[in-house]
Amino acid sequence: MGSTLSIERPGFHFPCLIGGRPVSRDERILVRYPFTGEEIGSVPRLDEQEVTRAIETAASGPPRLSRHERSQILLRAAALIEAQADAVARLITWESGLCLKDTAYEVRRALDVLRFAAYEALRDDGQCLAFDISANGKPRRGYTLREPLRLVTAITPFNHPLNQVAHKVAPSIASGSAMVLKPSEKTPLSAVYLAAVLHESGLPPGMLSVVTGDPAEIGRALVTHPAVELVSFTGGVEIGKRIAGMLGYRRAALELGGNDPLIVLDDADLDEAARLAVYGCYKNSGQRCTAVKRLIVSERVADEFAARLAAASAQVKVGDPRDPATDMGTVISEAAARQLEAAAADTLARGATLLFGNERRGALYGPTVMDRVPRDAPSVQQETFGPHAPILRVRDIDEAIAVANGTSYGLSAGVCTNDMRHVHRLVRELRCGTVNVREVPGYRSELSPFGGIKDSGTGVKEGVVEAMKAMSNVKLYTVPWE
């Protein structure tokens, strides 16, 4: 299978790629365009036995590639995708319902991932250690090197069909580890496409397999097979905890949900804060673990901030994801949109005030601004995966910190203030993996560490550098140094 796409018409079929070989079967998973419900593609529905065979094929030993060879494969893949960037963005839009503005940005992010991984493949991070440093020492020198894991399995979610996959696959190639990847059954096409591009770019067959199917049928093999040395999972808390209970004696990178706050204090630039809120709440249709899920606002500026946010939200163009002028497309399905509508209705019934939105048409669900939201409302205690903008009013920074820390999540946070004393407190006291000052919670480079604590993850970071560390073992060797 080459990388050429035929996505202008619905109905294309992407086979799995196992050991570089296309694999299909009569039983298929249909992929539908959320905006219209039309079938736009399909992938094979593999069973557990077929996935087990894929794992055992990969575990037979990945080919040894030099650092230069790994880097070149990743750079060639990036060049191929960049040449087809518009078509790839349309592919993501077809399967996810995300607007072209969002999917074009996702393609650019995935290109960063591939290129950063290519550069990191060339970096030798080994150490040289002296051993005559105490009375118990000897005249020896020690050296460290990183050796790739033999097999990593990866499971990715629907909300970033290309970039989340790139964040698993590119570091595994850069580190030299074999990988068996299961993309979301809702958005599998971009993952199969990326694998095809990588093989076209020279990736040996044993390095990457993509398996598709019902997670209830094939998920256990990906987590419990004895050949698997690392499970890299991005997705919901419930499934992440279920995986953690199945791991046994193997490591895992679990990047789970988020309930990220944007904290707006008295001295904030309210125009900037409203702009960050719109971007943070509505980008990717609000379907990001790092999306702004709670707006924690000082009550002294809350009225003015709420008015600006409602006015800015009304300017967001919601509609056909394929229209280049659309600012926000659909959520992943009509069922998901109905859940968001119901969550807003529940929040309003608990005493919140609707300032804008809560309008649904099929899988389209527009920006929804609610003020004076009770802190115990399920919609702000749990992760709401959509374009909600709930405002929680607080008296001061002490209460803001308490409210921000008052859920089971701890992924990231954004802070709007110009007072460096407040910045220092917030960086120290917010219990999360990232704090961004005058920026949305999710901002980062594809190279920087990323991950959360509490129910947001196990503390094992993603980002290209940290993922490569997780996919390798450190070996120490020593030699005489007379």
How would you explain this protein's 3D organization?
- With 482 residues, the chain is an alpha/beta fold.
- It has two domains: 12-256 and 457-476, Aldehyde Dehydrogenase, Chain A, domain 1; 260-437, Aldehyde Dehydrogenase, Chain A, domain 2 (3-Layer(aba) Sandwich).
- Helices cover 38% and strands 22% of the residues.
- It is built from 15 helices and 24 strands.
- It has helices at 48-59, 67-83, 85-96, 100-121, 163-175, 189-200, 215-224, 237-246, 270-282, 299-313, 334-349, 378-381, 397-404, 420-429, 464-470; strands at 12-13, 16-18, 21-23, 28-32, 39-44, 128-130, 140-148, 151-155, 178-182, 208-210, 230-234, 251-255, 260-264, 292-298, 353-356, 360-361, 364-365, 368-371, 388-394, 409-410, 412-416, 434-437, 453-454, 472-480.
- The strands form seven sheets. A seven-stranded mixed sheet has the order 15-18-19-14-13-21-22, sandwiched between helices.
- α4 (100-121) packs parallel to α5.
- It is globular and about 70 Å long.
- Residues 1-5 have low confidence and may be disordered.
